[in-house]
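Quick entry between incubations.
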Amino acid sequence: MADKNTTSNINLAAAEELPKAQSKFKEFVKKFMKRKTAVISLAFIVFIILMAIIGPYVVPYDPQAPDYTAMMQGPSVAHIWGTNEYGQDVFSRLMVGTRLSLTCALTATIIGTAIGVVLGLIAGFYGGIIDSLIMRCCDVLFAFPDILLAIAVVAIIGQGMVNVMIAVAVFTVPSFARIIRSATISVKQAPYVEVARSLGCSNTRILFVHIFPGTIQSMIVNFTMRVGTAILAASSLSFLGFGANVTEPDWGSMLSTGRNYLNTAPHMVLFPGILIFLTVLAFNLLGDGLRDTLDPKMN
Amino acid sequence: MGRYLGKRLISTIPLLLVISFVVFMFIHMIPGDPARLVAGQDATKEDVAVVREQLGLDEPLLVQYGKYMKGLFTGDLGSSIKNGKTVVETIAPRLKPTIMLTFSSMIWAAIIGIAIGIIAAVFHGRILDYVGMIIAIAGISVPSFWLGLELIQLFSVSLGWLPTSGLETWKSYILPSLTMGAGIMAVLARFSRSSMLETMREDYVRTARAKGLSESLVVMRHAFKNSLIEIVTVAGLQIGGLLSGSVMAETVFSIPGLGRLLVDSIQMRDYKVVQALLLFFATEYILINLIVDVLYGVINPRVRYE
Amino acid sequence: MAEKLLEVKNLRTEFKRDKTWVTAVNNVSFSIQPGEILGLVGESGCGKSVTSLSIMKLLARNSKISNGEILLNGKDLLKEDKKGMRKIRGREVAMIFQEPMNSLNPCMRIEKQLTEAILLHNNFSKEEAHNRAFEVLKSVGIPEPDMTLKSYPHQLSGGMCQRVMIAMAMSCEPELLIADEPTTALDVTIQAQILELMEDIRAKKNTGILMITHDLGVVAEMCSRVVVMYAGRIVEEAPVQELFADPKHPYTQGLIGSVPKLGSGVESLPSIPGSVPDLSVMPKGCKFAPRCKYAMDICHQQEPELADINEAGTRKCRCHLLNKTGKEA
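Done. Structure below.
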């Protein structure tokens, strides 16, 4: 096999590469740890994700159990964030609701990102007609700014949690495609890609082995920030009444319900809102921190 | 300049055509039978047929499209299935509140946002910079509907200073425009800051200082004027988004504007109205982008004298 | 010596990097007389630009002047407050920069940029300011001043922009002009024209010029005296002919040796091995010792002083090879 030599060469190269990559990662961690706001945000996000996993087993009350003796009570020792119109514990419901809200936002962002990244890579790499076609499609989607695109999607496919997720995913695609496209174009011109081309690598190989890793930095940063946006978009749709009509708690719909009792039980709006706000804030701050760490030119 | 303008105008036309087509296809993209959906599950076959005729779905697709395009140019967008009024009659009275809200929020958001951005850039790395950026990132992260509700809770319910809903006096605009503008203020603050930081590093800013100009003149006349070109672009794009962003504020404050109409129409499956609103928002967004592009050319001498 | 226009004494400038202060310019002293062109030479990063910005007090915020005096006609600029400095900048000391295209404001007409400084420093009406702007543009050899006044920078060539910069600098007739690599970004033929223009201005207005450059050709053509800097320190100072005829410091020798000479027939140019040391990890002794082929033990141990090496006191050198005897070892 003539390949044997190449393989061992590659292994050699990989062996050399490994410690370098590790130290690079260590350096990144060291730099990242210096950004206190980003570290605190990360800790908060880890806490929220933990709640999404173990929430139902650790919260003080059954989130679905009504207590007609304690309806719409303000924060107290027994119910730290008060109770809702059925006497259910707001804190427990919010913690359990983390699962639905976070799953929805994360899934939507992951799907939207995956599609956007592939489209962006293809558009940036091949250029020409394919590029114009993809980018014009994005232009059309961009013509429905912000939440409007998600609303339009819900108007077509109907209401419900899964549909909200699809809507938020669609809403993530065009911005990602644009960002990755421009990252791809700049990586495409890097000397190491020229080298790979001159060595006779196939287009697909160049695209996924050489160019894709070069766009990862901007992908990570934008993904983090888009999760925040997705949480906002999903809770906005929920609030508008397009979300799940289920009894299972969800941040946006809890806030939406609380609105009817704003005069008598303001805590029913306050706490879900604070939780959404802090979570989105944490994702945005983490994104900022990652960007500053990965790209020292900024700031 | 003339050529630049012409080029931009021409490039907009195909986009508008595609969007009008996408919006036309809107009803046809609904899974299942839209007429059945509108008429309800327990409607008779005859009822469904009536609805289908009202929506114009009984004709061949091409004929439908021809009628639709003709309607676009003659201003006939069909009738609302729910209240019998024409779409234009339904939308027209809703325009004013939304436009008023958009501009009142844009004005305060632009002034405060740009001011925060400049101050943060001038005091880069110091306490004012951090305070400004905390305000900005909070503004980006806050759910606007929640902000609106908390503002109502504070200023209307607890303090009783401002009305909770409606648009009777100028006071009614304060809370909705605060709600709508917060995000834009934040975006503009962040963008102005980074743009100003970049401009302040330019050689010509050093030249201005070397002339003996005071720091405020250096910042405002030399740095800010150059950053403004980019800031105006970003601010313009935000206006486009604002009109449709009114959905949240109008829902929270029960304002009879376009955003609220969109949500209501979707819930009532009044597809003709939804279609017209989507087309309106998209067209408006593209036209504002066009205006911003032209404005960019007007204030940027490098484009103006190409 | 005759009266001094500018006298820099023991200047020390530091800037903050990763929370520690790093010295960029250390114990630098030199002076300029009216009508004299002094060359300040060195590789990039040797502190020559920092020196010029220190004189203007236009250093970035993370920098500070921690020691020394900068006397302009006997007045210490370091004691001036912000307002006082603003009156001096543009009026008594003006500056031109390396990138003329980037040094002019892209969204302001040339007229506005010129009259701005004129109106600031003189009690002129707008019309008088316009006339002055017209005159200075004419005096720097711009063929159609009216057209140029109405232009934006991107409509002018690099050489024209540098002429405009010089016109702007000269518009308030400063006594001292600091030129930071004024010709580096320009074509060779334009370079010669710009240098000629500066020489012309010096001769007519008796302006003192601090010419900062890495180009020894510019130095040979323009300057009467030269100060050579290395790693934030002055290593040699000499009248220009003497410096080229008989460079004393090994670094200066290296610099001059690396310039091609017409007809010398040398196949490959000698270059100085190694590179400028990082400011935060300076060698202990002579800063040039690691790159110096004559380096002795003492060079690595102890930094030499900048010492007079001739009777008249016109030549100075910072080298252990010369120190003890005043002659080459």
